[in-house]
Structure formats: C-alpha cells, structure tokens
Amino acid sequence: MVLPFDILEYHHRLKQTKERMADKGIEVLLITDPANMNYLSGYDAWSFYVHQMLVIIIDEPQPLWIGRYQDANGARATTWIYDENVIAYPDYFVHSDTYHPMDFIGEILTQIGQGNRSVGVEMDHYYFTGMALERLKKGLPNATFKDATLLVNYVRIVKSDQEIEYMRRAAQIADLAMTKGVESIYPGVRECDTAAEIYYHMVKGTPDYGGEYPAIVPLLPTGDHTSIPHLTWTDRPFVEGNAVIIELAGCYKRYHVPLARTVSIGPANDKLKQVAPVVLEGIQNVLDTAKPGVTCGELEEVWRKSILKHGYEKEARLGYSVGLNYPPDWGEHTASIRKGDRTVLEPNMTFHLIPALWFDTDGIEISETFRVTDTGSERFTTYPQELIVRDHMDLSGQIS
Amino acid sequence: MVLPFDILEYHHRLKQTKERMADKGIEVLLITDPANMNYLSGYDAWSFYVHQMLVIIIDEPQPLWIGRYQDANGARATTWIYDENVIAYPDYFVHSDTYHPMDFIGEILTQIGQGNRSVGVEMDHYYFTGMALERLKKGLPNATFKDATLLVNYVRIVKSDQEIEYMRRAAQIADLAMTKGVESIYPGVRECDTAAEIYYHMVKGTPDYGGEYPAIVPLLPTGDHTSIPHLTWTDRPFVEGNAVIIELAGCYKRYHVPLARTVSIGPANDKLKQVAPVVLEGIQNVLDTAKPGVTCGELEEVWRKSILKHGYEKEARLGYSVGLNYPPDWGEHTASIRKGDRTVLEPNMTFHLIPALWFDTDGIEISETFRVTDTGSERFTTYPQELIVRDHMDLSGQIS
C-alpha cells in the first residue's frame, strides 16, 4: 500500500486535531465527513452512501475505522490504521428499517470504555443525518455531546507542500479539461457532447497523472440558463449568439482546483464585452491584494469597490477555501471571501475566487484558484484569463 | 419550460404522498432528499450541497420550494411550482457559523401558520443533518416532529410507464458505456483511461438522448482490488492475468439503469471460470422467479439455494430497488433483495440485481437491472450476460 502522504504528515494532522479537541473539551471525536476521514486516515472509497465513521480518541494513538463489512477491506487497503482498529458491521444494518449502524457504533464505543465521555459529532456535515444523531444519543446515554462541525476542516485550511503539489497536478488537469471543453463548442453541438469531452479529460488526466471524479460535476449553463448557476447540462444544442459558462475542476488524490470561464458562441454581445473587463479588473485587484495578514473580508471589499466604480454590485460571496473533498461540494466550508469574514490569510491557504455576476437572464463567471504565498498570491492554472470568444473563425461546420 | 412528466403525473405523485402523510398523521412534510424533491416538483439542480427543502402541506394544492437565493431561478425553471411559492434565503445563510438556513425555514413555516402542526422530516436521508434537525426543532417549538424517512421513496417504488421509458433510454446508454469501456481494456492501459472512456459515453449518450451524471461514479476495481467493491479507479495500468469488475449506470432524466460485468484481462483463470457459471445460473433462476406476488425474500432464497448447490454462500444483499436519484447513491433504500425482505413484487417495480461474490483477494460481479412485468420480469440492457474475456486476440499492442 502506498499512502498519498508520509505517515508523519498523518500524525501531524492527528496531533493538530487533538489540540482542537482539547480546546473544545472533546475526548472522543466521531468523524463522518468523508473528506475528514480521508484527511486523517487516508481512507478513500465511494462508501459514504452508508453510515461509516472514523473515531479519534484523545488518549489513543490510532483512530478506529467503523463501517460496512464489505468496505473493511478498503479501509485496510487505503489507510495507515492497524487491521485490529478496522471494525465492520454486518450487511443487515444497511438500509434497514430495523437495524441502524449507529446502534452498532454506540455499542462498540461503550464496549471499549468510551460511553461516558465527551463526544464530538460533526453536526452540520453531509452524511451525518438527524437519525444518526438521535440513535447515537440513545446508544450513548451517559455521553456528553458537543458540536464538532468544521473542527477538522479548520485543520485542513492551511495546506502542506505535498498537498499543494497535488493541487498543482489537479490544476494541469483543469487546464486540459477547459481547453478541450472550449474547443468542442460549436453551434449545434449538444451540451452533453461538451460535458462528455470535459469529463473524458478530467478523468483521463495527463500522461503522468490520472484524474479523479470531481466533487461537483462540470456545470455548463448556456443561453438563459447562464443566470442559473447550478443547473446541469442537457442534450440541447448550443446556439450561436448565446454564452456558455463552464465551471469545472481538476481533481488529483481528491484535491481540487476549480476553474470557470465564460464562452461566447460567436461574437460576444455588448453586455459581455462590457462586464468582462470589470470582472477581470476586479479579479486582478483581489489577487494583487491577497497576502499573509490580509483578511477574507478585506478581499471582498477590494472587489466590491473595484466593480462599484463601474456601477456593479453583487450579492453572493466571491469565493471559498478549497482542496480535499468528496461530493457534493469541493468547498471546505471554512473561510469565505465575503463581507465580514475575519479569516486572516496565511501562506498555503488556497481559495477558489469565483466572483460571478448574475443578471436576470444571463451572467458571467471567470474564476481563479489561488494559493497564498509568503508575500502575495499565485494562480494554480495557466488557462488564459479572459472572456473566451468562439467566433466565426472557429465554426468549421463541425455540427454533431 | 418542458417538464419531464405530464403535470397530471406530478399531481398523482403528490396525492399518493398526501395519502401516506394522512396515514402517519403528518400535516406538513419537509422534504430534503434531492430525489424526492425532484420526484414531486421536477426540481433538478446541483444545489443539494446547501440546505434546501420542498414543503408539502396536506391541505394546500402546491408545494413550497425553499432554498438559496441564487438557486431560486432554477426552481422557477425546472418545476411546476408557481413563482410565488418559490422562497429564497439570502446568501449570508450559506456555510455560516452564525446563520443557519433552517432558522429561516422555521420562521417562514411559522409565518404561514404551519408552526404548530405535525411536521414530518426525512430523518435518515442524505443532506438532512443532525444540525438541521436541531435548528428546525428550535425554530418550531410548537410543532410535533415525526419521522418521514422513506415516505416518498415508497411512493417511488412502482414506476409509471413514462419512468420506465426513461429507464429504457438509460439502459441504452449503459449498454453503450459498457461496450466502449470493455473495448478500451488492454494490459498497460490505465484504469483512469478506461474510466474516461466510460464517462465520455455515459455523458454523451446516444445521438437521440444525451446522458447525465450517474449518482455513483463508475467503479472498476482490478487485481486484488476486485475484493473491495467501493474503491474508485487509480492511474495504475491494467495487468494481464488480472480481472476488472466494471459497475456503471446509464442515467437519463436522473433515472438510472446500473450494469456490472467482470472482465478477464487475457484468458480467464480457473477461479473465474468456475464461479461465473454459478453466478449466471443464479441470476437466471432469480429472473425466472421474479413476477407479481413473489417477495424479495423469496428471490434471495432462490439465489441462495442456487449457489449453495455449488458450495457457495454470500453475506451481502443481492439487490435493491433502483430508479431516480442523485449522488451518492442510485439505490432507492426501500426494497432490498435479501433474506426476510417481505416486499411483494408488483408490475413496474425495478431492481438492480447484483449478486456479487467476493473472496479474500478477488471477486466477481455480473448484474442485471430488471423490471417486474405483468407476468414475470424483463432485463433493461442487452449487453451479453457472461464473463467477458479480453483474450490475446484483442491485445493489439495498443498500450497507452
């Protein structure tokens, strides 16, 4: 087995997690977020559709993995956890109206003497359901429950050099997928045809590094859907005169580098020509400002003033911390680049800056994923930072 | 806007849901499962990474959609809900440590006079977190909470003819993706190269029907990973003499038809040659038995006896109800083909029958998705039901 990180890096992550547990008075941390399970143990499998958990006990050196019987081999294959710390529940606990995996887990925790301790749970994380909470509380009547939402995520916010290296590889894949996706766009080509091109290159990756599934599917709203950011592709053909917003991510070892561009099919309309320079100037101003010591809120202010100069305002946040993740989101849910966010930038924090402007019937998105360096910031991808115009020179009659 | 189903079909689904609500004494049903939101309203967007909800009030004709501001256009674009029933929360509720969308939702429900009623929540569904439950309870102190887990899923278990038609289209895509995926496998080709081929065709679909993202990524464990069903692909090359298990699904209008096959890279080893006929015979016996009036548990018994004759036993369930879904699972979590499941088969129930056999270091999976007909069962896909052998005739030196 080859882990994606040195064992010392996992130990360091675990140590930082335990320090935060101690700060919050948590003795036993029940981690159900797949990204946090991966971050601390290496565990990587599409098994988060059943209940599973990594248990961190503050005075034990090793985590416990508890999951479904048929996934235990996966825990042995992908983690640094000793085999005896991999605990499996039988298959009759899966999607049953009688048995619940959290009953099993409560019993295990009681058996190993953790039933009367202070227990942290990831209250607002995906895959930790209301039922999971209630069954755990019932199974551990002598435990004190504490909210550990984002506890591990805040450890993840500053990346190691190895994590940055994986994001660089993800960035190469993002550049490749964007290049191929944009090249596939002609009037008459269907949205699904372009989505297929993007997926092909995202997954195949480069000759050196294979790609992985991103935590969000590629989004490519077109026409009046460009004002609706989260609709997925259809099988309608692209229409000359419309725009397409492509948002995708390269993914390597579960690390994401997202990238968004707006593409005009045929010559750009006046609206796009007018707003694109405003967005590009705003992005440049934010990237020029980002450096250690500056807050996320200050970055938002720079953007707000930059676009207000041209008469524009934006309601949604501009960006968020990004890196390791699983569906349904590549964001880390910690720092947001928005008004009032007091997160202070540190070297090796990584953000997806996506200052979209949406109007009633259309919109524009141009994004960059960047790293905070010792003295400023640097982009991960190299794809041209501009409004992409697929003008008549490109329309070689390649209609599907 | 073109909805995937006739408005009368949505009305019928809503009526059946309200009947179940009445049976359980639920007056207000809060639906957070993306598949159930889609089933009742048409809503289809990759927005389930933030809290959102469809509210069914037993004495109101229209559901309410409540979600993020930037997704409200999507609700207007993809549902049959009147615009005034689309309610949006501001962006500062997103991934905030101060504001929670369920506070907003509790307030809305109180304002419209639903705060003191019997409220059903999908306690054990993805995306309904422990925190969501607690904040809702706090926001609706005069409501009585009831568990509505799987309430809508049990409405979904019998498909309409239009749903079956969409599954037939998904099946064509599954056949295509399997064909192209298998054809891409040679020694030296990387797992990610084959995953890319599969994704390309799954998403592109046929000339008539574009494909969509499946709720589970294609899985293709190879070598010693064939005993570990939920690991995803890597960038390691395939090795002659190993097997690959491909599990994928075609997806159309969010309806899935999964399909699994085992592929031998080079001549099949003795183990595979020995177990493949056992699995195929078992599948045939199950399909021959499936018809209205038979229970899921009886299907399991047929399989168990069929393989026991050859000296094999299997721990995990054999299959499950399948259809409409979103990540992370295409299963519907209602009926399982396993020991003791008393679900009685009805026409237009649809199942993924995947009687995998896993051993210590390898395994075999051959699956079929089938529909219960008036008198028996029928497969959705046409891909040859056999152990696939990529023998030397195929190894044309096409090494990546």
TrEMBL record, chains A, B:
Q: Which domain of life is it from?
A: Bacteria
User: What is a single molecular function from GO for this protein?
Assistant: hydrolase activity
Q: Where are the transmembrane segments?
A: none
Q: Where is the Peptidase M24 domain?
A: 165-374
Keywords (A to Z) from UniProt? Hydrolase
Q: Which residues form the Creatinase N-terminal domain?
A: 13-158
Q: Which PANTHER family match?
A: AMINOPEPTIDASE, XAA-PRO AMINOPEPTIDASE P-RELATED
The name this protein carries in UniProt is: Ectoine hydrolase DoeA
Q: Which organism does this sequence originate in? A: Halobacillus mangrovi
